[in-house]
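Review form for a predicted model. The reviewer records the input and the model, then writes brief findings.
Reviewer: anonymous (R2)
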Amino acid sequence: MLPAPPAVALYGGAFNPPTRGHLAVVRLLLRAGFDRVVVMPCCGHSFGKKLAPAADRLALARACFAGEPGVLVSSFEIEEQLDGSTYELLQRLK
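Model under review:
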């Protein structure tokens, strides 16, 4: 029998800026049994909220989650210029 694939949580958000609360959520997800958490800062905001530049928020997220085992900060939403819509993200990930 093949081993089960890893359980991966996608954690999207503005991360404007990333906070201790975001870090706490990631740690809870890992304790809950996820093997990996992929943090995905959005490019824009679904409801037009003013955000710091995407590159800055990505760099801050990478700094915030650096050294956290099982956490990957992805630039996918920024590269694809997504606005934070979960539906749109899942369509692109297909």
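Findings: The chain has a mean pLDDT of 93.
Further findings: The two ends are 26 Å apart (CA to CA).
Recommendation: see findings above.
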